[in-house]
Design a protein that fits this description.
Blueprint: H1 2-10, H2 25-32, H3 62-66, H4 88-130
């Protein structure tokens, strides 16, 4: 889910849209009779309001429209998107998931080895008690 949300921003080609919510027959009847549809996911945006950006509007004055701003200073070349280099966050998530899988695998192997050692120890102690 997190990778899909990141892909929406960083790599829109890989983003998979959420499936449309389809009402069940019971919900359709309920809505048709004036009821409210079942709850959906909370809205995103700033503080859950659905607003995705703050916009600042300058004060409207007659003399401000007459004066045009000076041209921007000369800088570097035009902006170019870096493309696949922006996948740093997504690749970091993949790396963290891979590290977690490795650690889980190591713990399982260590647990099996410890269990085998314990069983061997119990067999040794049983033979020593019998002797």
């Amino acid at each position: 889910v997190a990778k899909n949300r990141l892909n929406k921003f960083y790599n829109p080609k890989l983003h998979k849209a959420a499936p449309k919510q389809e009402l069940s027959a019971q919900d359709r009847v309920f809505v048709a009779q004036g009821g409210t549809p079942p709850p959906t996911a909370a809205p995103g945006g700033v503080a859950g309001t659905g607003i995705t950006a703050f916009v600042q509007v300058s004060e409207h004055r007659a003399d401000a429209e007459k004066e045009s701003p000076p041209p921007p200073p000369e800088t570097w070349d035009a902006y170019q998107k870096k493309g696949q280099e922006s996948n740093g966050v997504i690749s970091m998530l993949d790396m963290l998931a891979a590290d977690l899988d490795k650690e889980v695998q190591e713990m399982e192997v260590e647990e099996k080895e410890a269990q085998a050692d314990y069983e061997g120890f119990m067999e040794d102690s049983k033979t020593k008690r019998a002797a």
